[in-house]
Amino acid sequence: MQRDARAYLWDALQAAELLRGFSKGEDFAGYQANAMLRSAVERQFEIIGEALNQLSKVDPELAAQVPDLARIVAFRNILIHGYATVDDALVWQVLTERLPGLADVLRTLLKS
Asked: pTM of the entire structure?
């Protein structure tokens, strides 16, 4: 049985909300110094990327409304397969600069 496409949006939004909570009050130096935080952040980004990748298979029209979906999935692939070369500065930049906009889009799509 195929999963409802909105469930993937929900999964991605929940991961985004966790990321927001994880990073609250943190700065880049604190992020770099905390291996557990880095691991948690990377894991939630992996979930976002996988959820949106699955969404693109189940409902391509809905997935097309997510800006930069291909880049999000590629970012997930880097985190999983290129774990030895993950750039903390890039992860932090995505977390602080790109994630809020993505979360807004996910909320909007879930409401519609």
From this structure: 0.95
Tokens of 9: 């949006």
- Which one of the listed residues 20, 43, 81, 107 is annotated catalytic? 81
Tell me the residue range of the domain where 88 lies. 5-111
Among the options 71, 76, 98, 107, which is catalytic? 76
Say whether 20 is catalytic: no
Give per-residue pLDDT as tens, 56-111.
999 999 999 999 999 999 999 999 998 788 999 999 999 999 999 999 999 999 99
38 included as an active-site residue: no
- The count of domains in the chain is 1
